[in-house]
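Now for my pick.
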Amino acid sequence: MLDIRQLQYFVAVAEEEHVGRAAERLHISQSPLSRQIAQLEDKLGLVLFERSQQRIRLTRDGRTFLAETRALLTHANRLESLGRRLGRGDEGGLCIGYLEYAMHSGVLPNALRELGQGRPAVHIALYNQQSDAQLEGLRQRSLDIALVCEPPQPDDPDLEAAQVLNDPMLLAVPKGHPLAEKQDIEPADLAQQRWIGVKHKESALRHDTLIAACAKAGFTPTISMEATEPLAALGLVAAGLGVTTIQQSLRHQTPEGVMLRELSWLTYRTPLWAAWHKINLRPLVEEFRKTLVSASSEMHGSATTS
């Protein structure tokens, strides 16, 4: 394997055509410099210089070798610079798993926008996957960050997580509905309504938890229709087909014809977690993790005060 330092010495001698001047340029003595050049020639089995008492000149092979050496050193400098930028998290790539809710709520877009400021060279690959597939992707190291509805177990040997959102639920009713203008909505007001459920692909757990929260409040929703995601449910509400609940962070996506009301007594919330692998967290991954938590915290804070 070639020694980068010897190659740098070789270029200096070739450009100065004088060992003494090259030594001064490199801030070393002449004797060590001459030894390094001789060792390089021995290693290559190649005579790089024609030597005389007055000066030292490149051989024909030496000139060919000089051109390639300069190209190699240029690439080495670029590689070092790239490594330093990667070390600072300024370049590289991120593979991110996410749920639709992470996108619709603004958590993921906000964090990506924040990360991208000053890092135009970062490549982002997004994978819409269910939580269990994302967590497995973290274990296999095919994902850097996962955005999931349930975190890994606290004693998981490989993975860690932080909650990035814990969204209250709002009641969505059609405009003109009796509950749209009612001052205080009580649980009894919702008992006789036609409900549009949201059947999550993720698991039945979230649906069951919402039903349990409603029962705890004093009523059981009568679900007459089901949608596969919240925005579709809002479209059905706008058409006057029933009422539903949506996450507070989706309120900016409410279509015309829908009114949103707060239900302070409803304990159910929709969580979102960021998860990552404990070991060998690259600087860029760590930077995005911090950005994700910070951006989602700011967004959630502004949403609750609006």
In short: The chain has a mean pLDDT of 85. The longest helix spans residues 60-88. The longest strand covers residues 159-174.
